[in-house]
Amino acid sequence: MEGTMRAMVLEEPRKLVLKHLPIPKPGPRDVLLKVRYAGICGSDFPIYKEGLFVPKLPQIIGHEASAVIVEKGEQVQGFEVGDRVTGTNIQFCGHCPACKATPAGEYAWGCENIAMLGLGFGVPGVFAEYFIIHDVIPGVSLFKISDTVDDLEAAMAEPMCTGAGWYSVPEPKSGDKIVILGAGIIGESVYQQLKDIPDLDIVMVDYSQLRLDIAKKMGVDHICNPSKDGDALDFVISLWGNKEFLYNYGDRVSGNADIVYECSGNAKAWAQAIQMAKPGGKVCTVGTCEGMAEISPQWIQLKQVQVLGGLYGGIGQSVEGINSGKLKVRDLATHVFPLEKLDEAFQVAMDSQRSMKVLIKVDPAAPDYPYNKQD
Ligand SMILES: [Zn+2]
Ligand SMILES: [Zn+2]
User: Do 144 and 225 belong to one domain?
Assistant: First the structure.
């Protein structure tokens, strides 16, 4: 496809500039996609603010989108021009030890450069009219969207994949007491996946009443806003008791949660996550934390808390969940901005008191949806 496209380029931290760039050309195993809606992710904040996570600036960032295939390479199977899709870039560098050790034709999942080749990180992202998904792997990096799902909902498949990948890692089971720190879309993605397990008791903690009100509407058992309801650890203890344990551990205060999912990305919440877990409980590092946390290693040692780290995503599961209607994403979108107002959209997205999911209507011809506030 010839011509130019509108793109918001992050030239340096906090400096987004509208540019008219050539529409990229897909290779034989690639698809060229026209963006309908794109989402701003919490992991875009460190890029926007400090230029972190990307190999270099300038870059077109953003990795959450719904789109339409406008051109496809001759080797791409299972998709046609005109298909409504969502996806992500999964590329293998070909020269790291893991890539070299992988036989030709197989996927080098251990590739050490896979993250840097991610959409909106090392390769141009979705805050532009067009983008490319390279080396398409059907059902892994590119997915069709059901006709029952609108473009705005489809743009939320990627963020919802975090919960889809993470929720089962600590092996939650019927009867568990669970704390989800952070009621943003990541916390919500974990919560909605947990709903299949019977008899869970779930607390969600956030300083944003707007986000907690959405959580309540989605069915969360208990919500706690520490700025109104007091300390979140006290809240958890008042609900499920103070789980005393053997060793002299400070004032021996410990929560009784089986599992704590840290989804807030707030380093301070991290310390509380370990205090909230029961002895032998599990704490999961779901959110992308900025800054440092002050944690006593004794909390982990003497309570025998298991800290589970990792980056898990299950975009196939979240697309399936959205396509089937199991995952309810419609009410999670609070704002929609046009592409040109991306900078303003970032300010709103970074203010958790004001917003939940902030979306960018990249294609002016895409439908508006009445259930969103238009800023
Ligand atoms: Zn994301
Ligand atoms: Zn590699």
Answer: no
Identify the nearest ligand to the CA of 102 by its number: 2
Q: Tell whether 107 and 127 lie within a shared domain.
A: yes
Which of the four pLDDT bands, split at 50, 70 and 90, describes residue 156? very high
Of 57-71, 203-217, 264-278, the one with minimum mean pLDDT is: 264-278
Could you tell me the CA-to-CA distances from 272 to 106, 188, 290 in Å, in that order? 43, 19, 16
**Banded pLDDT at 254 (limits 50, 70, 90):** confident
Whether 184 and 252 map to the same domain: the answer is: yes
Q: Report the separation in Å between the CA atom of 120 and the middle of ligand 1, taken as the mean of its atom positions.
A: 10
CA of 232 to the centre of ligand 1 (A): 27
For strands 333-338 and 357-361, give the pairing: parallel
253 and 326 belong to one structural domain: no
- CB of 167 within 8 A of CB of 194? yes
Same domain, 176 and 278: yes
| Domain membership of residue 239 as a residue range | 170-309
Q: How confident is the model at residue 252 (pLDDT cuts 50, 70, 90)?
A: low
Ligand 2 center to 127 CA (angstroms): 26
Preceding peptide of 367 cis, ω within 30°: no
Ligand located closest to 110 CA: 2
